[in-house]
Amino acid sequence: MNKLPYEQLADMLNAARGRVVPGSKWQHYKGGEYTIDHMVLLEDTSEVAVIYAPVSHPDISFVRPLTSWLETVEWNGETMPRYVEIG
Hints:
CATH superfamily: DUF1653-like domain
Order of helices and strands: HEEEEHEEE
């Protein structure tokens, strides 16, 4: 486990919240819509992750590393963001 100081961990979360705002809605490149619940740290790596839920099923939550959330993907011969903020 990474033993970073709490202040550094808090700074990492605050920076991430500036990029993916809790409460915001995002669309997956395949069409699903999701609401951001909050940002967390993966305990074993201190990597920032996104906790999110489908708009259609808010009682189900998922977690994805922020780096994966913000990456681009190849789909139908095009490069596009995995998620795009909407509304």
